[in-house]
Amino acid sequence: MPCGESRIAPPGLPRAVLPLLLACQSPAASAHSFGQLYSLPVPFWLYAWGATAALLLSFLAAAYFLTAPARTSTPWQRELGDHPLARLLVGRPLLALLRLASLVSLGLCIATGFWGNTNPYANFNMTLFWIVFLLGFGWLTALIGNWYALINPWRLLADTLGRLWPRYQRGFLRYPTRLGIWPALLLYLLFIGVELFGHGTPLRLAWLLLGYTALNLLGAGLIGRRDWFARCEFFSIWFRLVALMAPVELRETQDAGAAHPTVRIVLRAPFAGLLQTRAAGWGELLFVLFMLSSTAFDGIHETLPWKRLFWGDFYQLLKPWVGDNVLAAVPVLQPWFLLWQKCALLLSPLLYLVVYLLFVQLSRWAAGSRHSLKELALRYAYPLLPIALVYHLSHYWTLILSQGVKILALISDPFGRGANWFGTAHWFQTTIIPDMAWVWHTQVALIVAGHVASVVVAHLVALRTFGSARAATLSQLPMLALMVLFTAAGLWILAQPIQTGI
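Above: the chain's sequence. Below: its structure in token form.
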């Protein structure tokens, strides 16, 4: 959601650069920021050392208590079967209602974008899609499982066409297995680029959703519904990966002679899904890493230190060509700055990959493992998902309070024309601004908790991989260093917009 922010230059910034930085502020790009100054309640280094101590203690505890190789052991799980709660949750009446709501929501997002209020805050589609769906429902998936696979509106549309035209459901082309999920990763990259640099409006979102709907229907018809939604539709990949952390698994099976697939609910230990399999290939590994790097980039690309890297340091190199007048150089360098931002986003997962592979190789050497670098990299990929989740949660969660709750009012007036369909149009008129100290401490707690979970899961993966408690512990020393690096970097990025009062 677009929102502006006021920033103040920290000490040491050349005065000539400040007007240029202010000229480069983009309200649409400053998508998830707080518009107030704030100082950390205690020094940043104290948080960093505290988080490092928590990770170290969790590593020592995991190394001491988790000593059984358990290569073939299965984490605890229990299928609810015909339990009344299971019959209610995955029964045909409720599923039909949820699927109808999913289709209506998609249609309403498109319709309100074309014919609704042009104010993003007064239009239903911006809040429903960006806040409720991508943030709220995404985080809820980590608790209740992959319901998106059951109510995916684009899959429902493809299923409807498949029932009318059976050949459509099978597809006309064979999907090349070697492509893996690379198409989904490409779409994910493009989507984040649009989110960060697309200057979103309700109309642009409507066109985006309409185009994505057409792409899904065309892709499902070309290569078949199953392959398209398993390998190419990036929301399906994203929600599937997040759902691996959920204590609930939804299993969809097609019984012989049954007209509709059966959905079963299985309870399991939290994060157990991360131990059941590994990343399928380089494409899925990069997808996981981009879940990390895209959030990190979103957190840093509008901060003053990042802008100073281009408009301060890089500008000095270009002075012979653009001149000494900073303000006069803005129109010339602005397109290059935007290109530089987009290239940084595009290259961010590759940078993470290089760092990740370095530490995985160190882990391989420490354990004296005969497994290939690729094999270990794929096995350690899923333990990064708790970090990706808490980064996403800590970076964006205040939007649920500030704008997400407004969905209750917007649902009564989705077009922003003064209607009051359900009597809720006047609810939450005042924006909720949470206490910033509480926000920061919650963000720190989330990041530390996510990294601790990753440390424990990675140790379990190492036990299953090496079979020896000693080898597993040695292998995790470099990975612990990587977790500490990620923790410190995540806290530093979160602190940047508020620590210096930018």
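Residues 177 and 231 are 10 Å apart (CA to CA).
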